[in-house]
Amino acid sequence: MAGYDYVIVGGGSAGCVLANRLSADNDVLLLEAGKPDEKREMSIPIAHVDLLGTEYDWDFRTTPQAGLDGRRVTLAQGRTLGGSSSINAQMYFRGHETDFEAWAAATDDEGWGPESVAGYYDGLEDSEGGFLGSGGPQHLRPIRDPHPVSSSLVDAAAAAGLGRAESVARDAEGVGFCEVIQRDGERYSAADAYLKPAMSRDSLTVETGTHVRRLRFDGDGDRVTGVLYVQNGVTRIAEADAEVIVCAGAINSPRLLLLSGVGPADHLREHGIEVRADLPVGEGLQDHALVYTNYRATTETYDDAESLWNVAKYLLLKRGPLASNGSEAVGYWRSREGLDAPDIQFMFAPATIEGGDLAEYDWSGFTIGVGLVAPESRGRVRLRSADPDDDPLVDPGYLSAEVDVEALVRGVEKAQEIAAAAPLADVYDGRNFPAGTDEASIREHVRDHTGSYYHLVGSCRMGAGEDAVVDPACRVRGVEGLRVVDASVMPTIPRVNTYGPTMMLAERAADLISGGA
Question: Quick one: which H or E segment has residue 406?
Fold first, then answer.
């Protein structure tokens, strides 16, 4: 048994921020289930496609999805130091102003509104683009060598009616090139930005290969005093004098709370788990649904990225296709009139992508991914059993709301319009997947091919009301000494890739914790 001021469960994006900030003045233990982030592919930007489904990915599967004709969907979640920021496509965004207006409404404006969060973004960012913050720990860079097809994709989207953005990373409006979490042509994850600079401190202990089995309480009381975990086959206990902070993500954070007796009472009793706090843990799960559309090109794209020439170019100069994140530009669009913010994000890639990996076509092409970034559909996380080794039941409820289906259908139609617009039309040979352009064919494609954008949030929702799991300071309601700080507490899903909002949330939570909130 070992004692610390804070025990942090999960060495992902939020956990890295908190480990850095809190260990400046406290003894901190960080527990990560996965291995250290030492695999070479983690530093090569485009190699993230080779990490999916490996030991560095939790590689969860959903329950059969009724809205997807009963298909089960793969859910990538990073299982290493840095979490998903060590295996993702490195895209960085702040979020749309309306996202944080919704957060403010959910929390009675307890510091989560647009103006409040902007200061935290300014402090964490170090961007060369000129539209984000500078001097922070998180290095952000424009795409170094965008492919000419990516430029054509941006121009074609503008020609199709998407306004050119001054900064899509800042505003989540219009079309433009991405900012990415890179430095000198290599990935720069949350572990690089926050954890590694702090690991020389005597006050920070980092343990990998740890499986946290449950939270520990003070007898029959309502205070969490530590965690029980297994490492190398040995059961250990870590005590927290101040707090346990769960940063395990939108699937594993509710899973740990449920296993520990914090969750819906009926569900816990069903599995023979003592109820410590009756809370809606696991409810309200949200994700961005994503469907890919592929187009055959008349020129070479990144489908040959791993040629000897491109490998040499990267090793010598840190340039070329391997320095790309793959998804080099995005565009935001409203699928219907009357929306106060975009509900569709187009992801533009000079390569053919399907299911998060390079598609195995015998031709080069480009991809327009259609992401539903303001879904109405909701789901849940539940326990399969009381055994911590059993994967949980994850049901995002994809396309359970008909309005989500309509938005994706309109989005695919718009993607096909962009592909046929100048100057992209000059490199598009007219063949595409899906082949059909009529609404029935597109609707079938949406049902058959929609998957996850891997942006799961909301399963330990933050709010001011009694129906929330955590309060606006991320404290678990009805439980002393316990917080959840990660994407699971987001009241509503942002209209952007969730890395940036997660980092901002963790920075603010660190301030709240240090300030005694």
Answer: helix 402-419
C-alpha span between 310 and 250 (Å, rounded)? 37
Q: What is the pLDDT of residues 106-118, one digit of tens each?
A: 999 889 999 999 9
φ, ψ for residue 39 (rounded to 5)? -70, 135
Number of domains in the chain: 2
Residue of 80, 372, 394 lying closest to 209 (CA atoms): 80
CA angle 165, 169, 170 (to 5 degrees): 80
Residue 421 near residue 289, CB atoms below 8 Å: no
**Residue 455 annotated as catalytic:** yes
Same-domain pairing of 33 and 162: no
pLDDT interval class at 438 (50, 70, 90): very high
User: Average pLDDT of 263-286?
Assistant: 98
φ, ψ (nearest 5 deg) of residue 98: -65, -25
Domain with 312 in it: 40-69+142-186+286-452
Query: Letter for the amino acid at 352?
Result: T
One domain, residues 485 and 495: yes
The one catalytic residue among 96, 147, 445, 455: 455
Domain shared by 179 and 244, yes or no:
no
Q: Are residues 233 and 176 in the same domain?
A: no
pTM above 0.90, yes or no: yes
Reading the block at residue 516, the tokens are 């005694």
Residue 209 sits in the same domain as residue 262: yes
Residue pair 124/136 in contact (Cβ under 8 Å)? The answer is yes
User: How confident is the model over 29-83, as pLDDT tens digits?
Assistant: 999 999 999 999 999 999 999 999 999 999 999 999 999 999 999 999 999 999 9
Residue 288 in this model has a pLDDT that exceeds 90: yes
